Amino acid sequence: MNRVAVFCSSHEGLPESVTRAAAELGAWIGRQNLMLVYGGVGKGLMEVVARAVKSNGGRVMGIIPDKFSQAGLTSEYVDIEVPVVDLNDRKSAMLRESDLFIALPGGIGTLDEIFMVMASSTVGEHKKQLILFNPDGYWNPLFSTLKMMEQQGYIALGFTSRIKMPDSIESLTALLTP
User: What is the helix (H) or strand (E) element at residue 132, kind and residue range?
Assistant: First the structure.
């Protein structure tokens, strides 16, 4: 594992506990000498993660849709900029460029990204792990919904057993340490 994709919110003013978790995740990625692969925007949790990666010796790849780069939203912490046409291209590039996916709390875009990873995995396009980093139990309602879908036969039995939801950097580290 060399490249870690992080999906998260670009919104400002989110709970301090979530911002702290984003900084801890970025610091962990940097200390592990891994490369962050993310959406490249210099706002919200996206900027918190990128800054922490860089501050801890890591490198940052930003997969940036034209619309965002033209609006001047690219983070100053991006080492490698990969321009893409739109959000669909960004998801495809992130899937291709990453060895592991970690989702912090986020909104519609984050949900879109994690469901793309889940769906492409279920049809055998990849075997890469998706981790829902779960500060404050943020992902618990989604997991409950997925569990209900599994129990009712809408998704394969055992699907939810593959979803890992650490709630601290220590539990994330334990999960990823062989």
Answer: strand 129-132
Per-residue three-class SS string for 6-53:
EECCCCCCCCHHHHHHHHHHHHHHHHCCCEEEECCECCHHHHHHHHHH
Assigned token pair, 86: 């739109």
Sign of the C-alpha dihedral computed for residues 134, 65, 121 and 173 taken in this order: negative
Query: CA-to-CA distance for 107 and 109, rounded, in angstroms?
Result: 6
SS3 4: strand
Q: How far apart are CA 117 and CA 75, in angstroms?
A: 24
The pLDDT value given to residue 92: 96
Q: Which two tokens stand for residue 66?
A: 């034209």
Cα angle for residues 71, 16, 131 (degrees, 5° grid): 80
- 176 has a pLDDT exceeding 90: no
CA distances from 23 to 171, 173, 176 (A): 15, 15, 18
To the nearest whole percent, how much of the chain has pLDDT over 90? Answer: 98
Task: Provide the 3-class DSSP secondary structure of residue 138.
Answer: coil
Nearest to 122 by CA among 160, 164, 176: 160
Q: What is the dihedral of CA 111, 117, 119, 120, to 10 degrees?
A: 150
Does the pTM of the predicted model rise above 0.90? yes
Residues β-bridged to residue 84: 65
